[in-house]
Amino acid sequence: MTTPFLDFPPVATERFALDVNGRRHQLELEPRTHLADALREHCGLTATHLGCEHGVCGACTVEVDGAPQRSCLQSAVRFVGRPIRTLEAFDDDAVMAQLRAAFSAEHALQCGYCTPGMLMTARDIVLRLPQADEARIREELAGNLCRCTGYQGIVQAIQRVLRERTDTTTEETAHAA
């Protein structure tokens, strides 16, 4: 018995550019390539993790137009002309530095697979909801799955940063008066 010859048609690709972390990346990809794969495999930005590839786990969370976005759900070509930021873009970001320190201090890190997506979501919580209580933080984190930490350390880390930022604002206000 001989193996039949399979003749696959050529795969069509598109050329386009993505603006990622303040840098323009010229890409040639299949139109179906989702943003997460484009970032990891074609832009070399590996902090974006792929977990479920259904938008459920949050490991692939990046920032698009200033808001968290799952990068595994849509094709990369849909993001042309929109500013994209991955975790790598936040090396000099004060809020992200606070979050990283708090995640470490509160033992919010275990295997680390969910951490990039958690940090991206946590930064959004801190900036958008400065008065968030534990229940609201947990609600906001509902789209980010962690199988290791039990979430308590992550919630405590976000609460710590919210307290630190409130304390700093209070001190600045007191000094100004």
Automatic annotation (TrEMBL):
It comes from the Bacteria. The keyword Cell cycle does not apply. SUPFAM superfamilies: 2Fe-2S ferredoxin-like, CO dehydrogenase ISP C-domain like. Residues 14-90 form the 2Fe-2S ferredoxin-type domain. Gene3D superfamilies: 3.10.20.30, [2Fe-2S]-binding domain (1.10.150.120). Keywords: 2Fe-2S, Iron, Iron-sulfur, Metal-binding, Oxidoreductase. GO terms for molecular function: 2 iron, 2 sulfur cluster binding; metal ion binding; oxidoreductase activity. Pfam families: Fer2, Fer2_2. The keyword Ribonucleoprotein does not apply. InterPro entries: 2Fe-2S-bd (IPR002888), 2Fe-2S-bd_dom_sf (IPR036884), 2Fe-2S_ferredoxin-like_sf (IPR036010), 2Fe-2S_ferredoxin-type (IPR001041), 2Fe2S_fd_BS (IPR006058), Beta-grasp_dom_sf (IPR012675), Diverse_Oxidoreductases (IPR051452). CDD domains: fer2. PANTHER family: OXIDOREDUCTASE WITH IRON-SULFUR SUBUNIT, XANTHINE DEHYDROGENASE IRON-SULFUR-BINDING SUBUNIT XDHC-RELATED. This is Carbon-monoxide dehydrogenase small subunit. It comes from Pseudorhodoferax soli.
